[in-house]
Task: inverse folding
């Protein structure tokens, strides 16, 4: 993080001194490019982010705008009229690269590839933006162009990603190593279906699209050739759970319902933080691990919930259900 700040600081100073100065960071290069485009009177442009994070277009806009304001605030008005920060979402499971993948590529292609990217057959690419200067015909390659990408992002986050996190923790606690193994476990699948039922009440896409997506997800998860490791998915839960699990959970509580599926995911994560199942690889989980270590269960669960969302630890009914699900998971571990 310190190194990243140092790079941005250096780029800022360089561009303030000379807009043609070489820069190293992506935001610096984008600001330098926009300064050059304005100077050349080259007209409007769309910047399409493909980062794997929600609202990546808005995030890119914020980062670039903040840097531009420091380098040359006169650029901001030009950007407002000429720059479109488009948003994209890719839905495709890409398990970690293994030595076997590299060997298969070498055998099939006749050359060494240090980082081949294995993927599942399914793919969905959703894009939203103005594209005032035109764009390639991405729809010809299967992309979906939409006015609002948010419903598609929510569907992916609350169904695919949320169930991935649930399976990563609960499935590994029950002795499974991969997604296909975990979804074949009737208990794990039941927890996933409950989680999905809760989330679907708050999705805004047509019901038929959501139902079809659930069917497709089960087929995708069951693919034995993907071999997506639960240990990979389990990493960085302190960052993932707030965007995958909490929104439907909070919406269910606001509507007066108890989200047992969401509670199960949090229960499994707490046990994970205590050393059950997949190993903890989460630099941001120190507060949560400390809270989870409390000997009094209500105190531990309440403390972990506070690290996810301020005030959530005061929900005593939710705390009780999470404790119940922790007990169910512990029993399942000893099955």
Result:
């Amino acid at each position: 993080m310190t190194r990243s700040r140092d790079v941005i600081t250096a780029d800022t100073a360089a561009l303030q001194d000379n807009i043609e100065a070489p820069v190293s960071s992506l935001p610096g290069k984008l600001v330098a490019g926009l300064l050059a485009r304005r100077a050349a009177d080259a007209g409007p442009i769309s910047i399409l982010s493909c980062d794997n994070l929600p609202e990546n277009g808005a995030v890119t806009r914020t980062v670039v705008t903040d840097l531009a304001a420091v380098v040359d605030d006169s650029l901001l008005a030009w950007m407002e009229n000429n720059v479109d920060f488009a948003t994209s979402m890719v839905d495709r499971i890409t398990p970690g690269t293994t030595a076997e993948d590299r060997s298969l590529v070498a055998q099939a292609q006749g050359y060494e590839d240090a980082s081949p990217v294995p993927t599942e057959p399914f793919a969905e690419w959703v894009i939203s933006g103005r594209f005032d200067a035109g764009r390639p015909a991405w729809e010809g390659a299967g992309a979906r162009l939409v006015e609002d990408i948010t419903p598609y992002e929510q569907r992916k986050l609350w169904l695919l990603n949320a169930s991935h996190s649930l399976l990563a923790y609960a499935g590994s606690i029950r002795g499974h190593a991969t997604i296909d193994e975990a979804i074949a476990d009737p208990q794990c699948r039941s927890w996933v279906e409950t989680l999905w039922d809760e989330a679907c009440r708050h999705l805004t896409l047509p019901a038929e699209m959501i139902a079809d997506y659930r069917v497709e997800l089960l087929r995708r998860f069951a693919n034995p050739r993907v071999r997506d490791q639960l240990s990979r998915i389990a990493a960085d839960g302190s960052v993932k759970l707030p965007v995958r699990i909490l929104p439907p959970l909070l919406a269910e509580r606001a509507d007066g319902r108890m989200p047992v599926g969401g509670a199960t995911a949090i229960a499994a994560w707490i046990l994970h933080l205590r050393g059950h199942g997949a190993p903890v690889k989460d630099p941001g989980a120190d507060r949560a691990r400390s809270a989870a270590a409390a000997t009094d269960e209500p105190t531990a669960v309440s403390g972990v919930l506070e690290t996810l969302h301020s005030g959530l630890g005061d929900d005593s009914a939710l705390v009780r259900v999470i404790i119940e699900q922790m007990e169910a998971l512990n029993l399942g571990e000893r099955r």
